[in-house]
Each structure stands twice: as C-alpha cells, then as structure tokens.
Amino acid sequence: MPPPAQRVCWRWLAAGRASRRLVLVVVFVALLLDNIELTVVVPIVPTFLYVTEYEGANRSLVPAWTEPAPPALKPFPFSSVFSYFDNTTATVSVSGSTSTAELVNGTESSHPEQPLISSPPPPSGCLEGEEFLAKENVRVGLLFASKALVQLVVNPSVGLLTNRIGYNIPMFIGFSIMFLSTIMFAFSGTYTLLFIARALQGIGSSFSSVAGLGMLASVYTDDFERGNAMGIALGGLALGVLIGAPFGSVMYEFVGKSSPFLVLAFLALLDGALQLCILQPSKISPESTRGTPVFTLLRDPYILVAAGALCFSNMGVAMLEPTLPIWMMQTMCSPKWQLGMAFLPASISYLIGTNLFGILANKMGRWLCSLIGMAVVGISLLCVPLAQSIYGLIGPNGGLGFAIGMVDSSMMPIMGYLVDLRHTSVYGNVYAIADVAFCMGFAIGPSTGGAIVRAIGFPWLMVIIGVINMAYAPLCWYLRNPPAKEEKIAILSQECPMQTQSYTTQKTLRDFPLTDDSDVEAGSAE
To answer: H/E element holding 331?
Structure first.
C-alpha cells in the first residue's frame, strides 16, 4: 500500500476510535449477533431432539399410507375391506401373497407374522408421543436456561473486570467465546453437547453485554443522548431476536441444522475484525475513579425496582421460547418453519418499541412507559392461549414485543441515571446488575416454565406470568421521583427527565450545596 493511502487509513482509524457513533455501531453489532444466536435455537432444538431421540419419530413424521411396499408382490400397500357384520370399512395391510381380490372374496393367504390392521395415522399430521413431548418441555427449558444461569454467575465478575481494565478487552473476549460456542452448536449432535454450547454462549454474552452497555454509558454522558444511544443499541438486540427464530426455522427446514450456525460464525468473524479496528482490545484503560461496589448497588431499592421490571417483563417471553413451539406442535400441528415464525410479530414490534420509546420515554416519563409496558405484557400473555392457529398469535405476540420494548428502552437508561444520581458514575457494575436481571428472567422462565406446563398445562403458565407482570407494574411509580444524595445534586444536568429529591444522613442541612435560587431553576427546568 502506498504511503499516502496508509496515512489516509491511519487517519480514518484514529477518527473512528474517537467517534462515539462507531462505538455505538460496535455495541449494536455485538448485541445483534448475540441475540440472533440466542433465538436461532428456539425452533431448532425441540424438533431436532424429537427426531434424534424419540423412537417413533420416523413413523410419525412420515404418514403410514406412503410407506413403500415390496414392488414385486403388490402395487398398493393398503386396501379397504367391507365388513358384513358392522357395515364398516377396515384398512388392512396387504403383504406377501395376499392380493386385493383374495381379501374381497373372503379368502386370505397372508403370512401370520404380518399384521393385518395398521395403526391409524396421527390426526391432522400432528406428531406422536404426547408423553415424550411433555418431558421434552422440561429438558428444552433447562437447555435454554443454561445460558442465563451461567451468565448470572459470570456477570458480577465481568463488572469488576471492566472497572479494572476497561471495556475494550472484555468486549473482544465476548466475541471470541461467542464464535467458539457458535461453531460448537453447528456440529453438536447430542443433548449434552448442545447444553455445553448453550452454557458457553452465556459466558460470551456476559462479556459482550456488560462491557458494551457500560461503554455506551461512559461515552454518552448526557442523559438524553444516553437514552437515545441505549434505544439504538437495544434495537440491535431487538433485530437479533427478530431475525433469529425465523432464520433458524427456515434454514433448518430447507438447508440443515448446521447452516444457520455457520452463517453466524462468519458474521462473528466480521464483528471481531470491526472490534480490532475500532476498540483496540489490547489497550488497558481502567476507570479513573473507583466504582460503587455491586453489593452497595444491590441495597439500593430504586435499582432493585428497575432490575425487577427488566426481569419479570422478559420472563414472559423467556417462558414462551421453550413451551410455545411444543404447544404449537401438540395443538396446532404446526410444521417446523412455523415454530420460528410465531415469534416474528413479537420481534418486529420489539424493534419498533425500543427505537420509538428510546426518544418518547424521555418526554413522557420513563417510569410511566415502564408501568404501561408491564401491564400490556401481562394482558398479552393472557391472550396467547386463546389462539387457535399461528394467525391467532399475531396480536398477543405483537403486543408482547412492543410492551417489552417499552420497558427495556426505559429501564436501561434509568439504571445509568440512578448511578449518576445516587452513586459514583462508573457503569460496569450497574449494567452487570441489569444483565443479571435479564438473566434471571431467562433462567427462571424456561427452567420453571417447562415444569409448570407439564404439571398444570400451557394456558395456566401464561395466566401465572401475566398476573405477575400486572401486579408488579405499579412499583414502577416509585421511579418517578428518586431521591438524590446531597453531593450528587450539584453535578446533575438540569435537563434530567425525572424529578429528584435530596436526602442526607446528617441532622442539619446547613451545608447543603445548592441555594434557594437553584432550587427554583431546577423546578422550572422540570
């Protein structure tokens, strides 16, 4: 490369490393790929385990009347026989030397070892093995929950690591682990290997999400800009959820199990190249100030309310992931490609909700958006069991995705704002807590959802989680007016979207850092 071209490239890289927008692009792509891999397995795993482990899979997937017969003996495998005793027609298997004419004339010379009456085909093309499918709810739920359980354990350590070495290296570690787990998914053929690959994905996701969200909060210091940036980043999450399930179901149906994971592995390599150029993952850049410890943040009731909203709103869709495809297989007799398409309305509406309310929530109040969103989540979940076909799922799943988008795009900026308001403005630990809240929803949801479905049925599962969301929604009101510590009020922006109150542990307020005039200005800014 000529020297002038090299100088242009270096100048472009230097400008890119100083650009907040390119940092946002890197985080967007990381969350996109992570959530494609999160949801691409949703339609694949239930049918893959059914085909590979259920002893009657081949018999139930291929209708009995299409089984080939010995060509030299008879052209048709079955024949209808009229019974003179009950005037009904019975379907019998014709094999060996038996012919249709012999059966109609009442003479039969079939071999005794050949069964005469064939087992009836599954009604409407549904899969056989009700007991196997019921047990599979639990196994699939545990497999899906393994990612979140591992992520739940790893997140606090990643938060501490980002405070010590910065966000760049953990982001690249997350990419590397995600690439490894994707390759393992592509070539795993047993439940155990799939379980290990899913757990490994949880480690990579922990590094990517905690470091990515913390990086955004550190480069977008203004609360309004931070809310917009978080909305765009969560749009990557939404787009990943949008693409994952339909992409996985279509590729699995028409190409094969490994194909969607190999495509994801290639895209992950591109993401790694982008991180190498923009983030310089070999550079250690610790935070200049020491962040608030995780346990101190966990004792903050306002952070706990925000984390609970993230947990319970996402727990609804987490319970749907392992149970809805199997419920569709049992009640709607859906083909494989429909199992992923059922999540398409939720994904599209989530993408719209996160981008729309990333801006609107700042104007109407993030606490109010979260409260309304959780109520709509509960109503949508109650409507899911009423669907009689895949088209009946469009409305409930669409409302569910839109409402979760309202909650996520409101609560993620609130987490950063609460740290600014009440603690030290270092964001690794608080977004580790936010990711823990996500993980608890996606760990408790699938693992308990399968067991509840087996015990009392899918409709009652939706009733339980729907009522929980509607009961939790009023708690978001407490985020309307969170109190601020004295020493933090002086450095807060007057454009903050939530009202604040001050409190102190001292007996007097004589050393309060603001004057009466500044209180009036704060009130007018609100």
So the answer is: helix 301-331
